[in-house]
Every structure is written in structure tokens, then in C-alpha cells.
Amino acid sequence: MLIYDIWFLFIYMFFLGNLIFVSKNKHLFVVLLSLEFIVLSIFFFFFVLLIFIDYDMYMLMVFLVFSVCEGSLGLSILVSMIRSYGNDYFQSFSML
Amino acid sequence: MCFNSFFFLFFFMLINFFFFVYFIMNGLSVFFEWEIISFNSMSIVMSILLDWMSLLFMMFVSLISSVVIFYSKSYMNSELNLNRLIILVLMFVFSMVLLIISPNLISILLGWDGLGLISYCLVIYYQNLKSYNAGMLTALSNRIGDVMILMVICWIMNYGSWNYIFYFDFMKNDYVMFIISFMIIIAAMTKSAQIPFSSWLPAAMAAPTPVSALVHSSTLVTAGVYLLIRFNYLLIDMFFFKVLLFLSILTMFMSGISANYEFDLKKIIALSTLSQLGLMMSILSLGFPDIAFFHLLTHAMFKALLFMCAGVIIHMMNDIQDIRYMGGLSLYIPLTSLCLNISNLSLCGIPFLSGFYSKDLILEMVSFNSFNLMVFILFYLSTGLTVFYTFRLIMYVMISDFNLMMIYNLYDEDYIMLNSMFVLLFMSLLSGSFLSWFIFFYPYMIYLPFNLKLMVIYVSILGSILGFMVSNMGIYSLNKLLLSYNLSSFLCLMWFMPNLSTYGLSYIYLNFSQILFKNIDMGWSEIYSGKGIFNILKNYSVFYNIYQMNNFKIYLFSFILWFMILFIFFFI
């Protein structure tokens, strides 16, 4: 609704991704997906930003590489958790 | 331990006797004084006054206590901790001596408090429930007197020192002296068990018998009389002295009546002590301190002897004190019944025994000086009542049939107890005439009409006949006086004073404190402390446990919250 500017879209996507990240879900996979969504929003904003700085897109590729590594790390954590607990339900963690 | 203290006290008695004779023959009076501190107008001195009265009293106290300690070697020989009793008795004698020789209120307070506390320890010596109750009654009644003497100490500091003997003639009409005399009279009334405070003396018979012989016959209860004798110059025109006359005459009368209803041997003797104390107090408050002192000393002798005979009888009856089980003892224990008879007859005032000199003198002084009709009647009635309960006791104990068992073997051959009783027997026979020759420099002039002079003998004979008639109880005899239940319970239970002193004083407070206990101790204060906090902790810790078993994501949500706050404040 708040689409006056491209910049508002970025704020909106980023904030929503964080919201999903902190929300209580049943599955850990949802947390990882929200992280990917945050990464995607930052990628989008980075792309629009770099258009205004003389089309230097190489930094964007570095960012993409790091984000893909992070995603794969998350997936490996998910796999190890499934292998040890049998599921990826999030209720086994508590604040203590 | 017994023999050592016996010899020490006997030797002390001999020293006192020789000094007494020397002092009274030469009219000597020695005053030792040690000035501890002297402030601006206040001086603290420790003084010791030795005149013939204190030396004579000390001689009698040490004689009775030495004989009692010797007696208790055999009476309490089955007692494991006899040394404790002997030490307590020695401390008691020390407190009494301190009281006797002091012209100074602080040392009187030391002796007085010492007497009260040690008599408490002695009364609770057999540690059963009845002794505890009796000890509490004794200690708290005496405590009132201690408080009174403490307040006298405060008031007499007004005059500059605590030596009261210097202030009698000088300050007689002062308001402060009026208050001091009031408090001293109340203190003496508590110690000598006059009417409002007389419930502790029969109850204190829970003490061992030698202790009763020393404490409750001659020394503790006469401390009050001795204090009033010392203060006599001050008190002699005061109004409250006449109130004391009234109360002590009533004490004499009341205990004479109650002793006729009693069936416990030691309680009868205790009530007769109370009656004689009333006699001493009343003759003192009529204005004759030396006659009161004379009766104090002779009474000490025969009453201690009477208690010791009662001790022998109790030992023989296998620790039964009820006189309904006794009878015919004069056939089996001749020496003890000799001592019992002589002390009883001396108590009644039979001519030329020791009690006759003091008691007859008192009655003749009452008849000769003009007093009230009530004073006159109550004095003679009480004398008759004394003879009445004495002869009733003699009938029950010595003349009737033996009521305890069918087959019996009573023997008297305990020579330690007998020897100690013989010393007191000797003194009880002779001390009347001996004292009257020593302490009265000139005889009292008494001139009475014939019938008034013989009034004593009339009431004595009447009392003895009534005593014989009342105690002729067979199996079918009906005591018609007991049919009027209210009157006889009033007269028998000492005019309800023990109930008033114990139950009556504490009933309101105990009731109220029960209400407080139920409502507060077991009610509200359990909610606000104790169980309430426990319940709070229990319930809320469950909540805390559930609260903390939540998701990590809740923690992370606070970040988003912070982000929203920033967004709201900085972009709108």
C-alpha cells in the first residue's frame, strides 16, 4: 500500500522478511526461507542503487556469492538437525 | 555437706547468742558503715546494724536452719542431689541474715529478693506439676512485694540516702513518707501472706518438709513482720496501719476457720502459721512492736518443731499427708508424739509453755487497752479457733484408730531426726520464759477484771471441747454443716482467695489471648507470612516456569518492535 517510491518497496519487503524471521513457526525451514527473502530484498535494493552509480554491477555479484554461501550453510544446519532430531520442528528450543 | 553446714550454723548461733547477751546487757548497738560513693547530696553507703533485735533474730534463724539441715540429712536421704538442697538452704539463710542486719533499703532489697527467689527454687524442688504451680504462685505473690520495695527505694532517694532509720522522726508528716509507708505495708503484706495475698502460703506446702520447717514457719513469712517492726516508728500514726489491722485480723480469723475444714496435715500447719502471722501483724499494728517480735520468735520455735514432727509422721505413713488415714500414733511413736503435743499445746497457749508467754501477753494487752468490739471479738474467736483445729488435729492424728492398713508396724527410731527435734523441743519449752526475761526490761502493767482475765481459758476450753466433738467421725456420722454447701465451700476454700489470685486474675487475659491466637496467629498472619507467601511462591513459580519455556523467537520479536518504533518516530 505504501508504494510511493521504489525505496518504500524495499523497506516493506525487508521488514516483512524480518517479521517472518521472528515469528513463531513450526518449521525451521520457514526461518531459512525468510532469511532468503531478506537476502532477495537486499539484492533488489542493491541492484536499484547500483543503477544510479554508473551501472557498476560487480559488487552485486560478490554479494550474491556470499548470500548463496549463507543459504547453503543454513541448509546444511537444517539437514543436520533433521538427521539428529528427525524433524525440523522448532519447539525444542527455549529461551533458557 | 550436711554435717559441715550444721556445725557452721550452730557455731554461728552460739556466737550470735553471746553477742546478743552482751549487747542487751550493756545496751549496746553497733553500726558499721562503708561509704561507697558520695555525690552532691546523695550518698551510697553499705551499712550493717547490729543491735539486740537483729542478733536475737539471727540466733533464732541460725538455730532453726542448723537443726533443719541436720534433720534433712535423714529425711531426704533417698535424694540423689541433696547437696543442691543444702546449698539452696544456705543461700536462703544468707539472704535472711542480710535482710536482718541491714538498716539500708538496698541491702533489704537484696535480702528480700533473695528470699523470694530462693523460696521459689525450694518450692519447685520436687519437680512435678503441683510444685510448679505452687512455685509460680509463691514467686509472683512475693514479686509484688519486691516491686513495692523498689518503688520505696525510688521515693526515699528524695531524702538523700537509703538509710531509712535516720528519717523516721524527722520527716514524719511528709507526703513522701506517707507514700513510702503505704508501699512498705503492702510489701510486708505480700511477704507475710495477709488477706489479699494469702493464697501462696498453703500452696507452698508443695516444698519438702524440712524446707517448710525453715522457710514457711519462721523465716520467710516473718520477714514482712520484721520489716514492719523496723519501720514501726514511721508507721505508728499512719492511717494505713489501721487498714493493716483490719486485714490482719481478718487473715487470722479466716485461716482459723479454713484450718478446721482441711484434711491435709501440712496444709493445716500452714493455715495455723497464717493465723499466727495474722496475730503478729495485728498486734504490731495496734502499736506493740516488741510483743510482736516476741511472738515471732516463740512461734518460730514451736512451728518449726511442728513441721518436723509432721515430717516424721509423713515418712511413717509412706508419704501420705491426709489425716484421715492417721490415728492412734501416740501409742507407737512416743517421742515424736511428745514433740507434737508440746508444740501443739504451745501453739494453743497452754500455761507456761513458750507460746503462752507471747500469746497470753498479746491477748491481755488487747483486753487492757481500749479497742474496737470487732477487734476484741475476732481476737478471742481466733484464739478459740486455734485451739479448735489443734485439738481436732490431735484427735485425728493421735487418738482415733489407725486408718491406713490392717497390719502395721510404726517405729520411731530415726535418731538423727529425733535429736534435731529435741533441740527444738528444749527451746520450745524454755524460750518463752527465757525471752521474756531478756527482752522486756520491765513487765507490762495489766489490770483486768476476773472474767476478762479468764476469757482466754474459757475460749480455749470451748475450742478444745468443740475440737473433740467435731472429730468423732464414725462410719454413719453425718456432718450437717456440709449440707449448706455454699457456706462451707466459702469457708473451706480460704474465702476463695486462691481462685481469685490464680484463675480470677488470669482468666480475662487468657480468654482474650485465645481469641488473638485463633484470629491472628493461626489466621491472618498465616496469610501475610508463612503459608501465604509459600502459596504465592508455589503458584507463581509455575507461571514463571511456563513463561520461560517459550520460544527464542519471542526474544527476537523485540528487535522488530524496536524497528517499528524507530520507523514511527523518524519517518512520520
TrEMBL record, chain A:
It holds the Pfam family Oxidored_q2. GO terms for cellular component: membrane. GO terms for molecular function: NADH dehydrogenase (ubiquinone) activity. Its main location: membrane. Keywords: Membrane, Mitochondrion, NAD, Translocase, Transmembrane, Transmembrane helix. The chain crosses the membrane at residues 6-22, 29-53, 59-82. It catalyses: a ubiquinone + NADH + 5 H(+)(in) = a ubiquinol + NAD(+) + 4 H(+)(out). It is a multi-pass membrane protein. InterPro entries: NUOK/Mnh_C1-like. It is found in: Membrane. It comes from the Eukaryota. Belongs to the complex I subunit 4L family. This is NADH-ubiquinone oxidoreductase chain 4L. It comes from Bombyx mandarina (Wild silk moth). The lineage of its organism: Eukaryota, Metazoa, Ecdysozoa, Arthropoda, Hexapoda.
TrEMBL record, chain B:
The chain crosses the membrane at residues 7-32, 44-70, 82-101, 147-167, 173-190, 211-233, 239-261, 268-288, 300-317, 329-353, 373-395, 416-442, 454-478, 490-510, 552-571. The keyword Translocase applies. Keywords: Electron transport, Membrane, Mitochondrion, Mitochondrion inner membrane, NAD, Respiratory chain, Translocase, Transmembrane, Transmembrane helix, Transport, Ubiquinone. Signal peptide: none annotated. InterPro entries: NADH_DH_su5_C, ND/Mrp_TM, NU5C-like. Its main location: mitochondrion. It is found in: Mitochondrion inner membrane. It catalyses: a ubiquinone + NADH + 5 H(+)(in) = a ubiquinol + NAD(+) + 4 H(+)(out). One of its GO terms (biological process) is electron transport coupled proton transport. Its EC number is 7.1.1.2. One of its GO terms (cellular component) is mitochondrial inner membrane. Residues 389-570 form the NADH dehydrogenase subunit 5 C-terminal domain. Residues 102-382 form the NADH:quinone oxidoreductase/Mrp antiporter transmembrane domain. The keyword Transmembrane applies. GO terms for molecular function: NADH dehydrogenase (ubiquinone) activity; NADH dehydrogenase activity. It is a multi-pass membrane protein. It comes from the Eukaryota. Core subunit of the mitochondrial membrane respiratory chain NADH dehydrogenase (Complex I) that is believed to belong to the minimal assembly required for catalysis. Complex I functions in the transfer of electrons from NADH to the respiratory chain. The immediate electron acceptor for the enzyme is believed to be ubiquinone. This is NADH-ubiquinone oxidoreductase chain 5. It comes from Bombyx mandarina.
